[in-house]
């Protein structure tokens, strides 16, 4: 165990240490061993300079380093990285953000985002509520500085295929809810789905998202077959967004070749969760996220901004939950009303507050993927560009066949985010299009 001996000979009790393994399975094994031994280690997205993006690391106190070393040696676990985690000093972008601050107390909190580990809900609530317009500008600049120093300026573009809209849940805000009798239900054939995926592959897309309503478990075998076919034909990375499934399903999907799983929690406020999810349970939802990690998935979650009765402190609680979870991807969208739902007549979520949630999530959750969502593009004509200017670093374009696109009715007036729209939004935001995309710039968006 030369790596262990090399890096653990001298330990500073004031340092945090990173533990990174070559596979998610080994990371989970180490975490379980530490947990059983009473050694506190938290999941975080792997910081820049210590490994590839969208992977998971364990961070722990230097006080525990000798015990962690002994534990890993006993169980013959060889990490890729085991090093003190020292952040880079603030660069010019951070200096610009700090110079924009108007209120000293708010500036102190922004500065603490780089180093502080323990956050209270009240402090995160303060971050979400800048005292002045100038402080709001500082918040945006700080989020952009954090995004730039951890992820750079290239925007990752992924492609989604909404292959079915059958759903067994009855969420009050979602147009796919089972009680919506006005919705035409559909399920694409494997041939239709594969054609859409081939189109995305020909655009240069490297990660595809298979998205549907929450189907019953009779669909499991067909999804497993679809994953295997995609892997064998195209070799793409696969993200699943299928709602809550059984632990056995999660393992089956992972073994078939799926890489990531997106399960948005929407809100971590127990009372609010009960009000908007009549047939769901918050603790069960959280358990599913743990199961997904145990199955070996890179983990995605996220929430809605603007649910009826939602407070800013509730949003702060959501961000702290995502941070503790160490989510690899966090999808944040404004609430948008959907026809034929109990919330159809409510006002949409506030754009300004949604963007502040983006910024604070970037500051506190670090090197995680934050997409500028289709919901933002649906709320405001320049919403996707604005998301990229408030800390987001990815876009998900939708390539569902035209004949069924309107039936994937999550909310009203859903924007069509195709390759042209996504790339133009990236350019409008002053960001860089990824080199893997095959896109010819057009003079006008439409």
Q: Give the end-to-end Cα distance, rounded to a whole number of Å.
A: 59 Å
CATH topology of the largest domain: TIM Barrel
Q: Assess the beta-strand content as a share of residues.
A: 5-15%
The helix tally amounts to: 18
Characterize the biggest β-sheet.
Answer: 7 strands, parallel
Give the helix proportion (percent range): 40-55%
Instruction: Give the C-alpha Rg.
Output: 22 Å
Q: What average pLDDT do the residues reach? A: 91
As laid out across the biggest beta sheet, the strand order is 10-9-8-7-6-5-11
Instruction: Please write the string of helix (H) and strand (E) elements.
Output: HEHEEHEHHHHEHEHEHEHHEHEHHHEHH
Ranges with pLDDT <50 over ≥5 residues? 1-14
Named CATH architecture of the largest domain: Alpha-Beta Barrel
How many runs of DSSP E, i.e. beta strands? 11
CATH class of the largest domain: Alpha Beta
CATH superfamily of the largest domain: Aldolase class I
**What is the SS-derived class?**
alpha/beta
Q: Which outline best applies?
A: globular
Q: Give the count of structural domains.
A: 3
How does this structure look, described?
The protein folds into three domains: 2-84, Alpha-Beta Plaits, CATH 3.30.70; 92-150, no CATH class; 153-428, Aldolase class I (TIM Barrel), CATH 3.20.20.70. The chain is 42% helix and 14% strand. The chain contains 18 helices and eleven strands. It has helices at 2-7, 24-36, 65-74, 92-99, 104-112, 121-127, 133-151, 190-203, 220-234, 247-256, 270-276, 282-294, 312-325, 351-365, 374-379, 383-389, 402-405, 419-428; strands spanning 16-20, 42-45, 56-61, 81-84, 156-164, 207-212, 237-241, 260-262, 298-305, 329-334, 394-398. The strands form two sheets. Strands 10-9-8-7-6-5-11 form a seven-stranded parallel sheet. Strand 5, helix 8 and strand 6 form a beta-alpha-beta unit. Helix 8 (190-203) packs parallel to helix 9. The radius of gyration is 22 Å and the shape is globular. Residues 149-373 form the Radical SAM core domain. Keywords: 4Fe-4S, Iron, Iron-sulfur, Metal-binding, S-adenosyl-L-methionine. It comes from Heliorestis convoluta.
């Amino acid at each position: 165990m030369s790596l262990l001996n090399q890096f653990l000979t001298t330990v500073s009790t004031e340092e945090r240490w990173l533990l990174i393994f070559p596979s998610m399975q080994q990371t989970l094994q180490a975490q379980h061993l530490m947990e059983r031994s009473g050694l506190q280690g938290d999941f975080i997205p792997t910081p820049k300079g210590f490994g590839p993006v969208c992977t998971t690391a364990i961070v722990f106190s230097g006080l525990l380093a000798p015990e962690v070393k002994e534990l890993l040696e006993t169980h013959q676990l060889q990490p890729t990285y085991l090093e003190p985690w020292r952040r880079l000093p603030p660069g010019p972008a951070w200096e610009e953000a700090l110079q924009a601050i108007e209120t000293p107390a708010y500036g102190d909190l922004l500065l603490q985002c780089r180093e502080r580990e323990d956050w209270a809900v009240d402090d995160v609530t303060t971050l979400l509520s800048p005292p002045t317009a100038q402080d709001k500008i500082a918040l945006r600049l700080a989020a952009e500085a954090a995004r730039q120093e951890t992820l750079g300026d290239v925007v990752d573009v992924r492609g989604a295929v909404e292959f079915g809209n059958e759903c067994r849940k009855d969420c009050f805000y979602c147009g796919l809810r089972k009680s919506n009798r006005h919705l035409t239900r559909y399920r694409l054939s494997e041939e239709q789905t594969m054609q859409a995926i081939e189109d995305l592959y020909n655009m240069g897309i490297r990660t595809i998202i298979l998205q549907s309503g929450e189907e019953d478990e009779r669909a499991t075998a067909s999804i497993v077959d679809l994953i295997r076919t995609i892997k064998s034909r195209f070799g793409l990375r696969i993200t699943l967004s299928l709602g809550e499934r059984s632990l056995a399903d999660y393992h089956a999907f992972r073994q078939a070749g799926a890489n990531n799983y997106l399960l948005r929690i929407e809100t971590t406020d127990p009372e609010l969760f009960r009000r908007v999810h009549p047939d769901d349970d918050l603790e069960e939802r959280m358990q599913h996220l743990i199961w997904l990690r145990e199955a070996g998935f890179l983990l995605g979650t996220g929430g809605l901004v603007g649910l009826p009765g939602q407070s800013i402190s509730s949003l702060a609680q959501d961000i702290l939950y995502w941070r503790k979870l160490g989510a690899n991807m966090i999808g944040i969208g404004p609430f948008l009303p959907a026809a034929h739902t109990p919330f159809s007549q409510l006002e949409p979520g506030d754009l300004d507050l949604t963007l502040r949630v983006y910024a604070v999530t970037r500051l506190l959750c670090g090197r995680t993927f934050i997409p500028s969502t289709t919901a933002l593009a649906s709320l405001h004509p320049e919403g996707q560009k604005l998301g990229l200017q408030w800390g987001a670093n990815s876009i998900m374009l939708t390539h569902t066949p035209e004949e069924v696109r309107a039936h994937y009715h999550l909310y009203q007036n859903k924007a069509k985010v195709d390759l042209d729209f996504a790339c133009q939004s990236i350019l409008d935001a002053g960001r860089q299009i990824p080199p893997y995309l095959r896109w010819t710039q057009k003079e006008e968006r439409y």
